[in-house]
């Protein structure tokens, strides 16, 4: 009987803030992990966020809500296709472009001669800005980033990420 009670108690346990944050970070549709890596997990299209975890909650929240997109350019191909892109590996035969209009980003290998231009981004916005993520969800994500980077399970108050 004791084991049944323990099993039921465990099955109904509320996820911790870092567990909720991890689920949000790696959410297939809107999660940070579709573009960013963290401690070797996720997709390394955008910057790895491990170093970010050593910052305070407000600094991490500011980075998440940033509209600065210095890594993103608008790729215009000679075929007429245009999309927000991050550039990956390139050599004389191919340029790897990650199409950020797709979620998760779609990897495209393009011949340099097929690129009409690469210009400043004036269209694409960082997903937390577009999705207007709540302070509660952002606090969970920040708690997970801090945990993954430092091992600390200290709770992050939603007031600290406004």
Largest sheet: 5 strands, antiparallel
CATH architecture name of the largest domain: Orthogonal Bundle
Number of helices: 5
Tell me the β content: 15-25%
- Structural classification: alpha+beta
User: Low-confidence spans: pLDDT under 50, at least 5 residues?
Assistant: none
**Order of strands, widest sheet:** 6-5-4-3-7
Tell me the helix content: 25-40%
Q: Compute the gyration radius: what is it? A: 19 Å
Instruction: Work out the number of β strands.
Output: 7
The CATH topology of the largest domain turns out to be Cytochrome Bc1 Complex, Chain D, domain 2
**CATH domain class name of the largest domain:** Mainly Alpha
Textual characterization of the structure:
The protein is an alpha+beta fold and 162 residues long. The protein has 2 domains: 2-67 and 127-161, Cytochrome c-like domain (Cytochrome Bc1 Complex, Chain D, domain 2); 73-120, SH3 type barrels. The protein contains 5 helices and 7 strands. The strands form 2 sheets. A 5-stranded antiparallel β-sheet has the order 6-5-4-3-7, with no helix packed on it. It has a two-stranded antiparallel sheet with strand order 1-2. β4 (82-90) and β5 form a beta hairpin. α3 crosses α5 (135-150). The termini are far apart. The model has no long low-confidence stretch (mean pLDDT 89).
SSE blueprint and pairings:
Blueprint (H helix, E strand, L loop, with lengths): L1 H10 L5 H9 L11 E2 L2 E2 L14 H8 L8 E5 L4 E9 L4 E5 L6 E5 L4 E6 L6 H4 L4 H16 L12
Antiparallel strand pairs: 1-2, 3-4, 3-7, 4-5, 5-6
Helix pairs in contact: 2-5, 3-5
